[in-house]
Automatic annotation (TrEMBL):
The chain crosses the membrane at residues 27-47, 59-76, 82-104. It is a multi-pass membrane protein. It is found in: Membrane. One of its GO terms (biological process) is late endosome to vacuole transport via multivesicular body sorting pathway. Belongs to the OB-RGRP/VPS55 family. It comes from the Eukaryota. InterPro entries: Vps55/LEPROT. Its main location: membrane. This is Vacuolar protein sorting 55. It comes from Deinandra increscens subsp. villosa. Keywords: Membrane, Transmembrane, Transmembrane helix. GO terms for cellular component: endosome; membrane.
Length: 113
């Protein structure tokens, strides 16, 4: 699933001969960073109500990065830097990526296979 998401990301750029959509791929790298730095590499803190300074900062940065993944193609389309087709391919890539992350998160929470 992750490979198909990455393929759609590249196709959104290659089909329309415009590499601006690759800017949203940067957000795919930034989304897990707060989890790695502030959450100790575990995603369990995202679902907990317990907080603290660093845990709340990690939740905020993760949310901001996720919103940025959707906002960047919209902003690029509004500025007429990418076409509508490239924006729609970017959205499909994002939703497949989110589905991949959710499946991975669910699989890591289950102890028995």
């Amino acid at each position: 699933m992750f490979s198909s998401s990455l393929l759609l990301q590249i196709l959104a750029c290659a089909i329309y001969s415009n590499w601006w959509p690759m800017l949203s791929a940067l957000m795919y790298v930034l989304v897990p960073m707060p989890c790695m730095f502030f959450g100790g590499g575990s995603t369990e803190y995202l679902l907990s109500r317990e907080g603290g300074g660093w845990a709340d900062a990690a939740k905020f940065l993760t949310g901001a990065s996720a919103v940025g993944s959707i906002a960047i193609p919209i902003i690029l389309r509004h500025a007429h830097l990418i076409s509508t087709g490239a924006m729609l391919i970017e959205f499909m890539s994002f939703f497949i990526f989110v589905g991949t992350v959710m499946c991975f998160h669910r699989a890591t929470l289950e102890d028995e296979w």
